[in-house]
Design goal:
- There is one protein chain.
- The protein has 233 residues and is of the alpha+beta class.
- The N and C termini lie far apart (52 Å).
- It is globular.
- The chain has two domains: 138 residues, Sandwich (Jelly Rolls), CATH 2.60.120; 79 residues, Arc Repressor Mutant, subunit A, CATH 1.10.10.
- Helices cover 39% and strands 25% of the residues.
């Protein structure tokens, strides 16, 4: 599929570039359509030296243990980049990438991206910011799995999603702009599906969960206290 300036402008790290700057990337960019539940690439697969970005849709990155247990490392939405190993690492996919919805994925050749960075160094800074945030999230997740109660990890995951992707105000409270299913949350914080359902039930005065993963934060202060490990709640 042909990539347009509008398509490239949807990618967060390019959001502030001028149209003429984006036009220089178009000859080196491609877009491919993927269907819901389609695998973009598998863990261990050798990747081409390209930038990967989501033009539309939602994906998740997962790893499967020898026991068969799946863990979702990250959920990414339209405008975000992924598969940094293709650019900065050994080119081997560290996780399997799966489409949670029909997706359009943009790829840009590494050489063209480096030239764009040479002309606009802010692109590299935006990429570093994104990768640093993800590294911090991974650190917090690992620390939480070792030392934090499941309800604290759940509260922190909702809190992170709230801060990172934003909310809209409703009569009930603040609802997340993105949906989170029981499966996504449970696999992201290392608990079972059933435990996730139970924990959200225990938080019904703080968080309202509706069918399809629609979440409304009823009491932000209480959520923050739980995320801080407040034993009184």
């Amino acid at each position: 599929m042909l990539v347009t300036v509008k398509d490239l402008g949807k990618v967060h790290i390019f959001a502030e570039l001028k149209s003429e700057e984006l036009e220089q990337l178009i000859p080196h960019a491609k877009m491919r359509q993927y269907l819901r539940e389609e695998i973009i690439f598998h863990e261990g697969e050798l990747l081409a030296a390209k930038l990967y970005a989501i033009a539309s849709g939602r994906i998740h990155l997962k790893k499967t243990a020898a026991t068969g247990k799946e863990t979702i490392l990250r959920i990414l939405y339209s405008g975000e980049i992924f598969a940094a190993h293709a650019l900065l690492g050994d080119g081997t996919a560290p996780a399997t990438v799966v489409c949670e919805q029909d997706c359009q994925i943009i790829t840009i050749d590494r050489t063209a991206l480096l030239e764009a960075i040479r002309q606009t160094p802010e692109i590299a800074l935006r990429m570093m910011t994104v990768l640093n945030q993800r590294l911090q999230l991974l650190h917090n997740t690992i620390h939480g799995l070792i030392s934090e109660r499941a309800i604290v990890r759940l509260a922190r995951f909702i809190q992170y999603t709230m801060l990172h992707y934003g909310t809209e105000i409703s009569k009930e409270g603040q609802y997340l702009k993105v949906n989170l299913s029981y499966y996504q949350m449970s696999r992201s914080i290392g608990i079972t599906y059933e435990e996730c359902v139970r924990l959200l039930g225990s938080l019904k005065s703080v968080v309202n969960y509706r069918r399809g993963g629609k979440i409304t934060i009823l009491d932000v202060d209480a959520l923050n206290k739980i995320a801080e490990g407040d034993e009184s709640l």
